[in-house]
Design goal:
By secondary structure, the chain is an alpha/beta fold. The chain is built from eight helices and nine strands. It has one domain: NAD(P)-binding Rossmann-like Domain (Rossmann fold), CATH 3.40.50. Helices cover 45% and strands 18% of the residues. The strands form two sheets. A seven-stranded parallel beta sheet has the order 3-2-1-4-5-6-9, with helices on both faces. The protein has a two-stranded parallel ribbon with strand order 7-8. The relative contact order is 0.15. It holds the Pfam family adh_short_C2.
Length: 234
């Protein structure tokens, strides 16, 4: 029957590619979405990951449909890019609360059943910005760097229960989020990538699929880049 999987922010971009790949492999996949509609062919639950009550409700709906969550992919995230001199407290807090606080909330809710089952997989979707830094993204980079410390600490906590926790550091990936970048900025970012192109959401999904699968049973606390070489050395 496959495993019960929950992907946050799974109605578009990287999250949707991950959800579809895991579903194609036979897993029972639920995705959370904050706005819009659930993707066709996947079980969708509306959820704002900044709200612990909504997170709990989303898990209950997923559990009722597919059973206790065995694989969690924490992907939900937002950007509010601004230079620090003009960044508001709300710009900073909203990004931290969604990207890092959201991962905290969903992971905390997921580990209960995983610890009882003495097994599970958690994959956190971070960014090369966490390693390199990006001008105009102090809030975003801080939130994504926080995922690395959070994930590695959680990996140590959960390893005795056979639960792995890993981080994927995505680079410049073709998504709706990057499509909105000014052409000049996107061209400059692409030029900085050693492979000379943006990646695809499917390429990120391939790595998440591996980390969530049986072949990665001896990998935990890792930060795996999917960035065309942009962050090498970091």
């Amino acid at each position: 029957m496959g495993r019960s999987v929950l992907v946050t922010g799974g109605n578009r971009g990287i999250g949707l590619a991950v959800a579809r790949r895991l579903a194609a492999g036979g897993d029972r996949v639920a995705v959370t979405f904050r706005s819009g509609s659930p993707p066709e062919g996947l079980f969708g639950v509306r959820c704002d990951v900044t709200d612990a009550q909504q997170v709990d409700r989303a898990f209950k709906e997923a559990e009722a449909e597919h059973g206790a969550v065995e694989v969690l992919v924490a992907n939900a995230g937002i950007t509010r890019d601004r230079l620090l001199a003009v960044m508001t407290e709300d710009d900073f807090d909203a990004v931290l609360d969604t990207n890092l606080g959201g991962a905290f909330r969903v992971a905390k809710r997921a580990v209960r059943a995983m610890m009882s089952a003495r097994g599970g997989r958690i994959v956190l979707v971070s960014s090369v910005s966490a390693l390199l830094g990006t001008a105009g993204q102090t809030n975003y980079a801080a939130s994504k760097a926080g995922l690395i410390g959070f994930g590695r600490s959680l990996a140590r906590e959960l390893a005795p229960r056979n639960i792995t926790v890993n981080v994927v550091a995505a680079g410049l990936i073709d998504t709706d989020m990057t499509a909105s970048l000014p052409q000049a900025r996107r061209a400059a970012m692409t030029a900085a990538v050693p492979l000379g192109r943006a990646g695809t959401a499917e390429e990120v999904a391939t790595v998440v699929d591996f980390l969530a699968g049986p072949g990665a049973g001896y990998i935990t606390g890792a930060v795996v880049p999917v960035d065309g070489g942009l962050g090498m050395g970091h």
